[in-house]
Each structure stands twice: as structure tokens, then as C-alpha cells.
Amino acid sequence: MDQVAANIETDGVTGLVEHLVANARRAMAAIAGADQDRTDEFVIAVAWSLYRPDRAETLAKLAVRDTGIGNVADKIIKNQRKTFGTLRDLLRAKSVGMIEEDKTLGIVKFAKPIGVVAAVTPSTNPSATAVNKAMMAIKGRNAIIIAPSPTGLVTTTETVAAMRAELARIGAPPDLVQVLPAPASKQMTQTLMEAADLVVVTGSQDNVRRAYRSGTPAIGVGAGNVPVIVDETADLDDAARKITASKTFDNSTSCSSENALIIVDAVYDQALAALRRAGGYLCTTKEAARIQSILWRNGKLNRSLIARDAEILAREFDLPEEARQARFFMVEETGWGPEHPFSGEKLSLVLAVYRASDIGQAMSTVRRILDYQGRGHSCGIHTKDLKRATRLAESLDVVRVLVNFGHTFGNGGGFDSGLNFTLSMGCGSWQKNSISENLNYRHFLNITHLVTPIAEDRPSEADLFGKYWARYGR
């Protein structure tokens, strides 16, 4: 019996979690005096543990073997791209000591650790999400304990081992990063949530709700179901290339992957032709019905078909030879809601396509799709008319509206996107999330405000009430 198993048997789940948290607090105490440069070395070490080419490949292969979803080539890219981009963002930020001074207000801000972080990670990104959250947590001189998805447990455990080894190599406490041991269980994760100082959850909505009920400050993220408009001003071939690259990336494991296209009537046929040239297959009505009956079982997605290769789906859906050469599959849809499952998140290489008479109807369709599923997350538009994008941002209950992007590559940060790199997208109160932005290092900091006297700033009553009095009287 190994030591972890012995601890579980002797002390139970509570004792095990208390042991991990105590380790984490000792590791935090050991780096409490670290300056910004040394703290950034810790962050770089964690980043390098996954970014290193051989490690990125090894863990990508393990993830596909462990979870059965996604594909190795794209997981290598994800492991490196997300890690590199997040490191870029973090090395440009202050997170130790005085981080901001506003002389006009007489306020100086000092960053402090938030404490031991419990991080729940999904099976879709068992390496990249674990490292992403660890980098952000350690940027604030916190320690992190990762609760992996049972499906991704082997990969996440190996990923944590790599982070710990790299931290030890540079003389940092390995216990800055720990992982819940096998057998992963809801009880163990719940106990960790209750013992930590902050909970950060990426994954199932059940885990998000559990985090918010844990009694510990929590950050959860919401489900995606991204609808994207293609209007008559769009560069159709450019849009098709971007949509295809985004939809097919890692077999559509990302919550930011396009799930529905709403194409205006004036360019509907041309847009479909461009999508076919880019690798899409347009299913017949009978084929779409067959796909629906196979992709959903008893109202739930068929787990054996989530994020599988296109050739596997074509075979399972019994599609013709032409489809077996395709990169993804388009089904035409007209409705939304439970009676129209293609209007929801599919986590597969299946894309719903809607025809809209004009931009107004396209926006209305986007709203209806989001009201069914994915409200708060994001939507997109391919257009040359930025006023239309502004209308979407002004009128829809979403945190992010992307213009002329492959959604997967812009929503969670990109080198041509101003959003910070992350693998966790907040959806605001629309999905009962506590953040309406991309998860970032600031969420892992406590801030002390030093306040000194400034010149009195006291307006007159007339300054504040004058217009009101003039209109309505006193």
C-alpha cells in the first residue's frame, strides 16, 4: 500500500485533505518573502514544465489515451499556445508588494496572497487547464491543490508531477502544486473546496454549483454554446477558413467552439459553398435526423461520440463516402430549445446552420439560441460593418462578442486578441458566475489599500441636485 492510500485508510478523506492543505500552507510560508523576480521564476518554471516540447507531446498523447477525446496534434498546440500566452500576460503584470499608486486619490495598492486555492479541472484539458490555473495562482504567491476530473486523473497527476519537479529544480517548494490522489471522488473534492481559501472551477455545472455552496469564496465558469453570424458584408472564404479551423480544433472540445452559424439569406448559398470548400459536409435532412438519434441518447449527449475524430463520426452516423473525407458536419436547423437539440452545445464536429432573412433576424436567432443554452458566454460575427457588432454587444447578455475571429482562438485570449489568455471564461450573473471576464491572475490576489489624506472633494448640493430640482422641484 502506498503512503497516500495508507493516509486515506487511516485518516479518511478529511485527514488527507487537511494534510494536503497543511503542506500547501507551509509551501506558501516558505515563499512569503519572494520578490517579483523570484515569484516570476516560479511561474516560468510551472510554464516550462508543460511548454517543453517533449513534455507537451507526451502529455497530449496521454490525455487522448486517458480521456478518449480530442486529438494529439491539437492538444500539443493547446498545451504550448495557452501556456506561452498566459506566461506573456503574467510576466507583464505586478503581483507582489506595491502594484498601483494613484496620487490623485491618495491610494496605494499592495498585493497579498489569497491563500490555498482548490482548482477543479475538466477532462477536456487535463494538462493545459491545470498548468494555466497553477501559473495564475503562483503569480500571487499562493499554493494550489488540483481536483482533476476522474476521466483525466492520470494525465493531470502526471502534469502535476512535472510542475513539482520543475519547481524543485529551481529550489522552490514542490508543494506549491499538489493534486488529489486516486481514487478521485466528489466527497474528496467537496472536502477540499470547504478547506481551501478560494475555489476555482472549470468543468461541469454540478461542480460549479457545489463550489458556490461550499462556504468558500468561489469562481465558477459557465457552459458555452457559441452562435456566430455571417452577414452579407463578410469575406466568406476568410470566415469559412476561420470557422473550420476553430470548429475542428481538438475535435471541438473547447467551450468556445462554434456551435451554430446564422447566415443571412443574401449570401446563404455562397457561405455554405465556402464552408464546403474549407472541409465541411452539408447533411441531408435524413442524415441530420439520423445524426440526432445517435448523438443524443435519452436527451443527453452520447459520451462515446464527444470530441471524436471526423472519420469516426462519419462511420458512426453512417454517412456516405463523400462525408468520410470531411472535417466537420453541417446540419440545417430552424428552431431552438429542447425540441431542437442541434441548437445546443454539441461538443463534437457537428455544426448547426440557420438561415436568416436579414441581420435583424440573425440577431434575434442568436438571442433565442443563447436563451436556450450558453447565455452569458459569448457570440461572434463575421462582418465588415462594425456597427452591427456594436449592436450585438449593446443588446445581448454575453460577456464577449468576437468580430471576424475563429472563436476558439480569440475567446480565451490570442496574440491578435486583447483578451487575456485563459482556459476559464466567466459568464457573469447570466450563468450565476461571480466573474464576467476571463479568469486571470487578479482573481488570485487580496489587495490592501493604503489611504492618505487628499484635498477635500466636496461638491455643493446644487452640483448634485440642481438638475433634479430644476426638473421636478424640491
Key traits:
oxidoreductase, single chain, Aldehyde Dehydrogenase, Chain A, domain 1, Aldehyde Dehydrogenase, Chain A, domain 2, Ald_DH_C, five-stranded parallel beta sheet, Aldehyde_DH_dom, alpha/beta, 474 residues, seven-stranded parallel beta sheet, globular, 16 helices
Structure commentary:
This is Aldehyde dehydrogenase family protein. Pfam families: Aldedh (PF00171). With 474 residues, the protein is α/β, with parallel strands linked by helices. The chain folds into two domains: 231 residues, 3-Layer(aba) Sandwich (Aldehyde Dehydrogenase, Chain A, domain 1); 185 residues, Aldehyde Dehydrogenase, Chain A, domain 2. 44% of the residues lie in helices and 18% in strands. It is built from 16 helices and 17 strands. The strands form four sheets. A seven-stranded parallel beta sheet has the order 10-13-14-9-8-15-16, sandwiched between helices. A hairpin with a 4-residue loop joins strand 1 and strand 2. It starts with a helix and ends with a helix. The mean pLDDT is 95.
Q: In terms of topology, how is this protein built?
A:
Layout: H1 3-30, H2 36-51, H3 53-67, H4 72-91, E1 97-102, E2 107-113, E3 116-121, H5 128-139, E4 143-148, H6 153-169, E5 177-179, H7 186-195, E6 198-201, H8 205-212, E7 218-220, E8 226-230, H9 236-248, E9 258-264, H10 268-277, E10 280-282, H11 285-295, E11 296-297, E12 300-301, H12 310-316, E13 328-332, E14 350-356, H13 359-372, E15 376-382, H14 386-395, E16 398-403, H15 407-411, E17 445-451, H16 461-472
